[in-house]
TrEMBL record:
PANTHER family: NGG1P INTERACTING FACTOR NIF3 (PTHR41774:SF1), PTHR41774
Domain of life: Eukaryota
Record's protein name: ATP phosphoribosyltransferase
Record Gene3D superfamilies: 3.30.70.120
InterPro entries associated with the record: DUF34/NIF3_sf (IPR036069), N-reg_PII/ATP_PRibTrfase_C (IPR015867)
């Protein structure tokens, strides 16, 4: 009896693509299921032929390559690949169109993220049970309605947050989401709060907050960081200012500082119990990094405020330095803790979006372990005075849950870094194992 695969119709997809787009387009169609033969153990099969294409854009054209009225010659590749069954063929064609469209929009200068979109989706998700459908905006300007499964549910345990789909997810492969979400740079993800409610908060986390802040404030690394931030603030704010006419750095924007009541997953407790007794850690150890990150954010704010206070002309225009923090992992207990122990913090973007809408050219960004394409978002929205974040394009950075942080580079963010000088975070070597926070991974990027 013939297998079901052998019984399917074998289609052949043929398309022409510029050499620069070849890898992205092949990845897209293979992810859709193309490149397979019936009863074969081989995948990603195709035939490619180099050649030269030509075209002359008409008067009404808006060419990505070439100019209106001029004959253009482009090195192109002819690609042939098998598609087993009509459904695979349809998905491959759709994936090809999707990745190409996203690439063309990006190349023409379209923004992947817009402040108004990020602020809008945050507002929609804040009261999710009262909204029957959410509106997402694609990068081509069209909108999409997504049904809300929690509409009208009392005390829902499922909470919506924003999940970002960065540049490479848009252009390199077919998205895993439904076809209608293609070209959406963000989608909605649902998280279950029942485990967090069951485990409850840490006992004594507020006392820990104060003790770690005191420990950080008395460290040599803290003093060194104050020196770096003072130099940055002085050169940017005090006459003669480094950037004439710029917006004062009235905001410190923090992303991914970490939840102060996070408890490790079950596997962490199992592995911890398997260690020798003298090597076992307390469950408090998983929040040591977030404790240090929040102390660092307060130091940055205090240092900028000190510089501003020293100059009466500046302090009259802006008497206070705002300190905003966004982390969708914050629990209600952590938000209450910050309100009591460090009211300087303004918690924004509980769904992971509106904090990015606060970006401007005069802010300082501190993002130790953000699980979002921060560099790409900044490249679209602003050029902050300084960005303190893990080194770009180097080692994979893991968040407090042991997951890789989603902050990859893109062509636009790579160009952005050319406008910045970089230096190591001023971690005193003798304190590397004392102050925690994985500070050795951080760099300070300062706008020239």
């Amino acid at each position: 009896m013939a297998s079901s695969a052998a019984a399917m119709t074998l289609y052949r997809l043929v398309f022409f693509v510029p050499e620069s787009h070849l890898a992205a387009c092949k990845t897209a169609v293979f992810a859709a299921g193309a490149g397979r033969y019936p009863d074969s153990n081989y995948t990603e099969c195709c035939w490619t032929t180099d050649g030269t294409g030509q075209f002359r854009p008409g008067a009404a054209a808006n060419p990505h390559l070439g100019a209106v009225g001029q004959l253009e010659h482009v090195r192109e590749v002819r690609v042939e690949t098998p598609c087993l069954g009509k459904e695979v063929a349809r998905k491959a064609v759709e994936a090809l169109k999707t990745s190409q469209k996203a690439f063309d929009l990006y190349q023409s200068g379209d923004k992947v993220w817009r402040k108004e979109d990020l602020a809008d989706i945050e507002r929609q998700l804040e009261d999710a049970s009262a909204v029957s459908a959410f509106t997402l905006r694609r990068i081509d300007g069209t909108t999409l309605k997504v049904k809300n499964p929690m509409f009208g549910v009392e005390n829902p345990i499922w909470e919506p947050i924003v999940r970002y789909r960065e540049y490479w997810a848009l252009v390199d492969c077919r998205p895993k989401e439904p076809a209608e979400t293609y070209n959406c740079s963000y989608v909605i993800e649902w998280r279950n709060a029942s485990e967090r409610l069951y485990r409850g908060p840490h006992q004594g986390s507020e006392a820990l907050f104060h003790s770690w802040r005191d420990k950080w404030n008395t460290s040599a690394t803290c003093a060194a960081l104050r020196g770096c931030i003072t130099n940055l603030a002085v050169s940017s704010l005090l006459p003669p200012a480094k950037f004439e006419g710029m917006i004062n750095p009235i905001k410190i924007l923090c992303f991914g500082l970490g939840d102060l009541n996070f408890k490790g997953p079950n596997w962490w407790y199992i592995q911890n119990r398997q260690r020798p007794i003298d090597e076992q850690e307390t469950d408090i150890s998983v929040i040591e990094n977030p404790l240090v990150h929040h102390a660092i954010a307060l130091t940055i704010r205090e240092t900028v405020q000190d510089v501003m206070t020293s100059n009466q002309a500046i302090i009259q225009r802006q008497p206070d330095t705002r300190l905003l923090t966004q982390d969708p992992q914050y629990t209600p207990e952590t938000i209450s803790l910050l309100a009591r122990a460090a009211p300087e913090f303004e918690v924004v973007g509980s769904r992971g979006a509106s904090g990015f809408a606060e970006l401007d050219h005069g802010c300082i960004v501190f993002a130790p372990f953000v699980n979002a394409p921060l560099n790409q978002i900044i490249a679209d929205l602003a050029r902050p005075l300084a960005i303190i974040t893990p080194a770009f394009g180097k080692d994979i950075i893991f968040d407090q849950r042991g997951r890789p942080c989603g902050n990859p580079e893109s062509p636009r963010s790579r160009e952005m870094w050319k406008e910045y000088d970089v230096q190591d975070f001023p971690l005193v070597e003798a304190e590397k194992d004392v102050v925690k926070g994985n500070l050795w991974q951080l760099k300070i990027y300062t706008r020239r």
